[in-house]
């Protein structure tokens, strides 16, 4: 009885239906203390009818949803009836009636469909009716575990068919992919999740085509390279296969990947847990796939892991006089590099000493790295680059000279735009390449 009265008082605060006067603040504070005591004693409160016909759910995991559904003549829930979202916090339902009984945990619902492969992104969810349930909650997760549907429905608005099955069609369209779903049965604050059921949404009408392989190829510098290829429309998964060029069967590696896990705006890429042997020759290929079946394989591309350090690279720019304190450093790429080491210094000290992954700075035959705003005007700077791979670090490039002369045309004409060798012996001796 106390909990029932406390619920009414709390709703005056939560719903803003009445203005509290100063004298009632102490009563509300006392009511909150009593409510906490009720909760610690294991007492629960169910939806309570309000004068306006609405009611409040003091139920920790239900809130009013913005989507609507309507009971149709088949007993299913369509898009225009009261629908609750299964989230945290108190909420308001509609036309749910007064229910204050607290009972045992409800029975689990039995799931029927969807399961297996389906061809629509808006399936009908069908499960068994459970007697005495106040409302049902539907939860759908994608392959990564992210919740994509989280809704609750008043049991009074759901009507079972002749086989005691309930069904709903939420107004949510799922993308192609694999999902898992559950139904939670709720009696007041007591609830029970069903077992999970999985299904795959297949919107393809034909098998995906063949992809195009990108990297690795030729000679590389990493024993665990990143494999990259172009994405293919309609492909929901890809299989990567790596073989020893001398002994192709069985493959060294063969595994399927969900397209959503490895696809970006640059295509598909993955670094598998596979260490290769320097000096050996390998081949790799990729097969597409979808919910309709397996697509075609690509042809093999060959590559070899080098046994040598990378060769020398050429520093391109900046050089001479520049007008920005944040230049982009540009140098030539080498195919066997996995990292690049960039050093920038003035006449007295090193001011930039950074390593960059080759895949982050390489575009074709050129590498580039943006520098932070650490340069000052009217000072001489020198920079150099060395390439590195799993074998070791290659030689440093020649030093390039530049000077920042922002908004100073007179000093720019004095300095000239030629490369200049540093006189600092420390440039050549300190900061030895990383092994």
What does this structure look like?
The protein has 435 residues and is mainly beta. It has four domains: 43 residues, no CATH class; 152 residues, Sandwich (Immunoglobulin-like); 93 residues, Immunoglobulin-like; 115 residues, Immunoglobulins (Immunoglobulin-like). It has six helices and 34 strands. Strands 3, 4, 7, 9, 10, 12, 13 and 14 form an eight-stranded mixed β-sheet that branches. Strands 16, 18, 19, 22, 23 and 24 form a six-stranded mixed β-sheet that branches. Strands 26, 28, 29, 32, 33 and 34 form a six-stranded mixed β-sheet that branches. β28 and β29 form a beta hairpin. α1 packs across α2. The longest helix has 19 residues. The chain is elongated.
Radius of gyration: 33 Å
Indicate the low-confidence ranges by residue numbers.
Answer: 1-18, 37-102, 408-435
Number of helices: 6
Overall geometric form: elongated
* Total E-strand runs: 34
Mean pLDDT: 76
CATH first level of the largest domain: which class? Mainly Beta
**Percentage of residues assigned to helices:** 10-25%
Hey, roughly how much beta strand do the residues contain? 35-45%
Q: What is the domain total for the residues? A: 4
* CATH architect. name of the largest domain: Sandwich
CATH topology of the largest domain: Immunoglobulin-like
Biggest pleated-sheet summary = 8 strands, mixed
Compute the separation of the termini in Å. 76 Å
Q: What structural class do you assign from the helix and strand content?
A: mainly beta
């Amino acid at each position: 009885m106390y909990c029932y009265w406390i619920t009414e008082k709390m709703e005056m605060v939560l719903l803003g239906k009445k203005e509290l006067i100063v004298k009632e603040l102490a009563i509300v504070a006392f009511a909150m203390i009593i409510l906490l005591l009720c909760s610690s004693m294991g007492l629960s409160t169910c939806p309570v009818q309000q004068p306006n016909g609405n009611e409040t759910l003091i139920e920790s995991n239900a809130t009013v949803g913005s989507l609507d559904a309507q009971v149709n003549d088949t007993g299913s829930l369509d898009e225009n009836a009261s629908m609750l979202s299964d989230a945290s916090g108190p909420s308001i339902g509609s036309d749910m009636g007064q229910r204050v009984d607290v009972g045992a945990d409800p029975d689990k619902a039995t799931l029927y469909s969807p399961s297996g492969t389906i061809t629509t992104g808006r399936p009908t969810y069908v499960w068994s009716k459970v007697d005495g349930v106040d409302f049902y909650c539907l939860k759908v997760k994608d392959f990564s575990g992210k919740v994509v549907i989280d809704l609750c429905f008043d049991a009074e608005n759901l009507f079972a068919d002749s086989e005691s099955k309930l069904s709903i069609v939420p107004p949510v369209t799922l993308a192609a992919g694999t999902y898992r779903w559950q139904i939670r049965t709720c009696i007041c604050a007591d609830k029970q999740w069903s077992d999970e059921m999985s299904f795959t949404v297949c919107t393809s009408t034909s098998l995906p085509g063949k992809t195009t392989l990108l990297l690795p190829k030729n000679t590389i510098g990493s024993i665990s390279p990143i494999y990259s290829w172009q994405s293919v429309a309609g492909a929901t998964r890809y299989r990567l296969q790596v073989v020893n060029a001398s002994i192709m069967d069985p493959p060294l590696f063969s595994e399927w990947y969900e397209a959503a896990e490895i696809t970006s705006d640059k295509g598909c890429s993955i670094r598998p847990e596979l260490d290769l042997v320097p000096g050996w020759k390998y081949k790799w290929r990729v097969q597409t796939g979808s919910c309709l079946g397996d697509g075609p394989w690509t042809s093999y591309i060959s590559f070899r892991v080098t046994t040598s350090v990378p060769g020398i690279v050429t520093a391109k720019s900046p050089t001479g006089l520049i007008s920005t304190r944040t230049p982009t450093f540009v140098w030539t790429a080498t195919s066997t590099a996995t990292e690049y080491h960039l050093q920038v210094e003035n006449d007295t000290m090193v001011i930039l000493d950074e390593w960059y992954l080759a895949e982050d700075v390489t575009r074709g035959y050129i590498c580039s790295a943006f520098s932070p705003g650490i340069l000052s005007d009217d000072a001489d700077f020198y920079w150099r680059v060395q390439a590195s791979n799993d074998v070791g670090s290659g030689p440093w490039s020649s030093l390039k000279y530049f000077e920042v002369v922002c908004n100073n045309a007179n000093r720019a004409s004095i300095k000239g735009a030629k490369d200049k060798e540093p006189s600092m012996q420390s440039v050549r001796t300190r900061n030895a390449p990383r092994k």
